[in-house]
Structure formats: structure tokens, C-alpha cells
Structure prediction request, 238 residues.
Amino acid sequence: MAERLMVALDFPNAEKARSLVASLQGIPCYMKVGMQLFYAAGPDFVRELKDKGYSVFLDLKMHDIPNTVRGGADSITRLGVDMFNVHAAGGTAMMRAAREGAQEAVEENSSLSLPLIIAVTQLTSTDQRTMNEEIGIQGSVEAAVVRYARLAEEAGLHGVVASPLEVQAIREACGPDFRTVTPGIRPAGSSALDQARILTPGQAIAGGSSYIVVGRPITGAADPREAAQHIIEEMMNA
Ligand SMILES: O=C(O)c1cc(=O)[nH]c(=O)n1[C@@H]1O[C@H](COP(=O)(O)O)[C@@H](O)[C@H]1O
Prediction:
């Protein structure tokens, strides 16, 4: 079950991230490297995690013209990561380009395997009002997420990032093999902070999430190891 927990290493430097990783030693969770850590510590830290045996999700949320995303996906795949993401809002041509870039890297290097390529739908910090009034997408968040999920599937991607609240609708639209990666996870009693569409770890797993992404409830805990173990227990009992 711990393999379905992705810990978001949102830290300003390698030293702080390394210390959190050390505190979780022996727990076979996925490690997620996002913009803050990657822009500071770069590819070397990703390789360090791979050398330690971790599965790595490189969360850089690419959103650019297809040619640029194809190149980005090629470079990311050469780092040997297990998963990376792009924004579904970039459209199917961009998502296809991400897949092609990753495939080209694998074809040129037989030691690599194709990473899971995942499309971000609506950020879990976005609520209904923001989506309708600011972003300008009408209808429910669930409908918008499902529409993006269908586009991602059509483009040959392996799954989506969404809130656990939308997992059932995504599964109905895209089937059981299509991965759902769900941030917006808050253990009972912990603060939502900037997240808008949240569920507990147990609710997310019971609802069918393939992976749950957890950052501050672990990284900001007084005892991160205990917090992670608690979450894994809750996942197992779900
Ligand atoms: O792609 C992501 O990982 C992501 C997408 C999304 O819609 N919402 C979201 O919170 N995330 C990431 O998931 C993590 C959630 O962290 P916490 O809110 O601290 O648990 C952060 O690293 C976010 O960048």
C-alpha cells in the first residue's frame, strides 16, 4: 500500500529534502519532486532518489507548444523518472507530443522504460467559482475534469491528476486501467490550507484513487515518519 503514497518533497533545497527522505527510510513510497525542489536542486537530486531505489514522480506540469513539450518530455525521460505530468489544458496535440518525446528517448536508450505520463486536469486548489468566473470554464468541476480525462486518454496518456472527489466519474469515463493521481489529501482534522477539493487518505483509497499525493500533512508534521505511517495504516484499512 505504501507504493500508492506519493510524498511531495516541496522543499527549497536538496539538504532539507534529503533529511525528510532519510526520516522515511524503509517506507517504499513514491517520491514527488516538484518545481520548488527541481528548480533549486535540479536533475542531480532526481538521480540521487533513483540511486536510493525510489520511484520518482517529476511534477513540472509542462504546458507549452507541442514542440517544446516534446523536447521537455525527452529530457525528463532521460532522467529515468517513473512518472511526469503535463497540463491537459495544452490540448491533445501537446499531450501527444509529450508521449512522442518520451517514446523517442526510450527508443534511443534501451536502459530506459516509458514513464507514466499524466495530465493535470483542474488543480485541486481551484473551486467551482474560480473555474467558472476566472478561468472561464462553465459547468461543474467534475464535468470539466472528465472532459480533460477523455482528451488525455485519446492522446495516449496513462492517467490524470485530479481531486479524489472526481475519481469515480473518471473511472466511469476512462476505465479501470487509466491512472488517477490525487492530491488534495487531508487527514481528518488537518487544515485544508490552499487546497479546495479535499478528502482523507482513507476516503481517497476507498474511492479508487490509484495514488494519493501528500505534502504538508507529512513534511510539516512534528514527526514526519509517524505521520506517513499513520496515513499508510489508514490506506490499508480503507
Ligand atoms: O500535480 C500535482 O502534483 C498537483 C496537482 C494538483 O492539482 N494539486 C496539487 O496539490 N498538486 C501537488 O500536490 C502536492 C500537494 O501538497 P500538499 O497540499 O502539501 O499536500 C503539491 O506538491 C502540489 O504541487
The two ends are 11 Å apart (CA to CA). Residues 58 and 84 are 5 Å apart (CA to CA). The chain is about 45% helix and 15% strand. The chain has a mean pLDDT of 98.
